[in-house]
Write a structure and sequence with these properties.
A hairpin with a 3-residue loop joins strand 10 and strand 11. This protein has a five-stranded mixed sheet with strand order 2-1-5-3-4. A five-stranded antiparallel sheet has the order 10-11-16-12-13. A four-stranded mixed sheet has the order 6-7-9-8, covered by helices on one side. The longest helix is centred in the C-terminal third of the chain and has 20 residues. It has three domains: 164 residues, Ubiquitin-like (UB roll) (Roll), CATH 3.10.20.30; 114 residues, Uridine Diphospho-n-acetylenolpyruvylglucosamine Reductase, domain 3 (2-Layer Sandwich), CATH 3.30.465.10; 105 residues, 2-Layer Sandwich (Enolase-like, domain 1). Helix 3 crosses helix 6, helix 10 packs antiparallel against helix 11 and helix 16 runs antiparallel to helix 17. The chain contains 18 helices and 20 strands. By secondary structure, the protein is α+β, with helices and mostly antiparallel strands.
């Protein structure tokens, strides 16, 4: 077992031990690795100025936010910063198209744009707009940046060929209160023996807590080296995703299998966030506005929980006992989630101030089985209207057996409004959310059934 973190920066091996291992990658790059092209602005994973490329094992390089990643999460990885790109085709195209003004955001744009060319030689406008969702610029209006991506010539070599070196990550690592085991049994024992232990995978929320709230967990656990938790497969009617499966990988896998959920994930967050965050992490975070949760509720997803007493399966609707309270014992870890593929009529909604890269004010999933102009069964889940995502049993019961009509869904909306108890916060008032709870059902009728 090692007592230090090993990783590559632009092909050169670095090691971090003791307190240094808990430094954010952005700070380490700037102050220890002399890679000052990586900028620190928001420290929340929102602006993209700190974007770097990261590679684990044989995968391609993908963009991530280095400001909310700690070095303890990066053992065995290869990292490329803007310095490691050199004067590549993307940078030359940015110059030719005047893609930079003040220049502070430019390194992040160049890095994120370079990632687009890792899997293709040319990009279209949709790829560019999707790929740069997580990068903000206050100067250019984005048009010259998009043009730079569209006119950039194919790169002469992929970064995986320029930086082919990899590091062995099969060895467990223990640094002070952090542990990255290679077996699930060791992970369970560590969680049992360290009350209050925080699991850090993508840590897209934990990283913000560390930066903005001075959060310090009594112990931290990474599951990244446990290979069985990387599984992602079609199990015949359901998708099985292990605890290490990123939101980006899950989004790609379900594109043709669950297109409605794929559409929600497309606007869930930036590529940088989705390349770090995991589906199980979104579930374990327990936010009442978690964007994946309404679908998981109406689909009947199930969680596998592993602890010292063995493994048990819990329906996701039973997992949440209250705000940030779970049916999860002190020694248990969510190892995988089974996500059924819904074949019924289905629509998912995410209401937020911005379409992309924004936290939801209200979410909903509406699932119907219909025949001969009537509703045979309805399953409805709302988020942002209670301490947890909730099912609406009264509304579901009202809809069952009813004829499909606008009047039916208007009355269902009024019933739904009475079933929720939203609160007011910075994203919307209680009245606003209650009105959304009512209006979303007639909206569903117009968009899906009319």
């Amino acid at each position: 077992m090692r007592n230090h973190i090993r990783f590559l920066v632009n092909g050169r091996e670095h090691r971090a031990a003791g307190p240094t291992a808990f430094t954010t990658l952005a700070n380490y790059l700037r102050y220890d690795a002399a890679a000052t092209g990586t900028k620190i602005v928001c420290e929340e994973g929102d602006c993209g100025a700190c974007t770097v490329l990261i590679r684990r094992g044989d995968a391609d390089f993908v963009p991530v936010n280095s400001c909310i990643l700690s070095l303890i999460q990066l053992d065995g990885t290869s990292i490329v910063t803007v310095e490691g790109l050199g004067m590549n085709a993307v940078q030359q195209s940015m110059i030719a198209n005047h893609g930079a003004q003040c220049g502070y955001c430019t390194p992040g744009f160049v890095v994120a744009m370079s990632a687009l060319f890792e899997t293709c030689d040319r990009v279209d406008e949709k790829q560019v707009r999707d790929g740069l969702t997580g990068n903000l610029c206050r100067c250019t209006g984005y048009e010259p940046i998009i043009k730079a991506a569209l006119t950039a010539p194919p790169p002469p070599a992929k970064l995986r060929d320029l930086y082919p070196q990899t590091l062995d990550d099969d060895e467990p690592v223990r640094v002070d209160g952090f542990f990255a085991p290679t077996t699930l049994a060791d992970a369970i024992r560590f969680k049992r023996d360290n009350p209050g232990c925080t699991i850090v995978q993508g840590a897209t929320d934990v990283g913000v807590w560390i930066n903005k709230r001075a959060f310090a967990a009594p112990a931290m656990l990474s599951l990244a080296k446990i290979r069985e938790l990387h599984e992602l497969r079609d199990d015949g009617g359901a998708i099985v995703a292990g605890a290490n499966v990123t939101l980006a990988a899950f989004e790609t896998f379900i594109k043709d299998k669950i297109p409605e959920l794929h559409g929600i994930l497309n606007i869930f967050g930036s590529p940088q966030i989705k390349n770090a965050g995991t589906l199980v992490g979104n579930i374990a975070n327990g936010s009442p506005i978690g964007d994946t949760l309404p679908y998981l509720f109406v689909a009947g997803a199930e969680l596998d929980l592993a602890g010292t007493a063995g493994t048990r399966t819990v329906a996701i609707a039973d997992f949440y006992l209250g705000y940030k309270k779970f049916d999860l014992r002190a020694d248990e870890i969510i190892t995988r989630v089974r996500v059924p593929v819904v074949a019924d009529t289905l629509k998912l909604y995410k209401v937020s101030r911005r379409k992309d890269l924004d936290i939801s004010a209200f979410t909903a999933a509406i699932r119907l089985r219909t025949s001969d102009g009537h509703i045979n069964a309805a399953t409805i889940a709302y988020g942002g209207v209670a301490p947890t995502v909730v099912r609406l049993p009264k509304t579901e019961a009202f809809l069952a057996g009813k004829a499909i009509s606008l009047q039916t869904f208007e009355e269902a909306g009024r019933i739904a409004r009475g079933e929720v108890k939203p609160i007011s916060d910075v994203r919307g008032s209680a009245e606003y959310r209650a009105q959304l709870a009512e209006n979303i059902l007639p909206k569903f009728y117009y968009e899906v059934l009319a």
